[in-house]
Amino acid sequence: MLLWPSVPVIRRIYEELTVVDRFVVEAALMLAPMRAEDVEEVTTIPKDAVVRIAGRLTGLGLLRPDGADYYPVEAAAQNALQERAVPEDRKTFMTFLYLPHSDDLIAFPTGPGRSKPPLLQKVKSAEIAPLPRKIAGAGRADLLRARIRSGRVAGLPPDIVDVADDTSDEALPPSCPAYRCRGHVKSNDDGKLVLDVLDRNGKKTAQWTLSGAIEQANEWIALTMRALDAGNSWTAMGGEVQVIQEGPGAWKYVLDAVAAVAAAQNGLRLSEPAGLEIHDGDRREDDRKVVVTVNARFVPLDHDATAVFALNHAIRTVVDQDMGSVSALTVEEATAAARARYGLENDALTESKVAESLWTNKHYRHVYALRSTKDFPYDRAEHDG
Description:
By secondary structure, the protein is α+β, with helices and mostly antiparallel strands. The protein folds into four domains: 134 residues, no CATH class; 66 residues, Orthogonal Bundle (Arc Repressor Mutant, subunit A), CATH 1.10.10.10; 72 residues, no CATH class; 81 residues, no CATH class. It is 34% helix and 28% strand. The chain has a four-stranded antiparallel β-sheet. A hairpin with a 2-residue loop joins strand 12 and strand 13. Helix 2 packs across helix 3.
């Protein structure tokens, strides 16, 4: 995040013109030049009053004085006679927050009931992150001016029309602070993000509400959809995966037997919770960035899937053992523990099935370690080899 406080901007207000104001402008348009004494002669308005009115209109940019004469400017007819108001630009100051990753720019006007900008100076950043190449080195004033004129600043009052000419046009740095946060999208319509800022230990240190960070909100929503699609690779062979969100960043994947086999072959430990890394797919394959990690747990859909889960648990238990301690007893205990964990009968998962799966899953060293023990009768590895 980049916070830019007290940026000088231009507020355009419209000054309403009275009947007398419009009459004097119309007189200047018709007479060109107009003299105060001429208006006094026709209307009996005192000359001094006409001079004061003309001076005010000059200040509003409707008349141009030349000695005692007054000439209308080019926009006088439209502003005074058609719109009956004249724009006046005044300098004021405003705070902006820029989110480089999502390219969101948020304005924080002052006043009662307004959202307060995040106090970045009161929290520690988690790291320094590089800015996108298209932004790094660009002029800050140029960026703000382009966004204001194109209406791409969230929360910007409609009367702010530009940045002031004296705005510092310093170049954006190559990197900026990044903060460790967790949060949620409160409203999809205005992109209202509620962020809990965390320290390195995960303790909440601040809470910020960022209304209008639409692209960031859309990205978070897209992460939800990616989590829903995370099991696609497990259904390529016709398997079924049900995805259920159990809480913020927490998902449950219910797998049938075919999907469970595919997930196990992808290296998942089905019996334990896992963290699924969701990547930024817009980057090159060799330079993908982890965007978020979500908590996931896996549940078997039916009895056949339960058997796959139990087999995966038994295999993992054996493989996790130190190679020197692997024996027939290891397989027996791992198989019994897996059956108990998933409530299976003895014939639903056998030691022979576990040993065979160790071979088919290419845990050859464990199979060789088992064969080296005299109490291991299984010789399928020799048969297949």
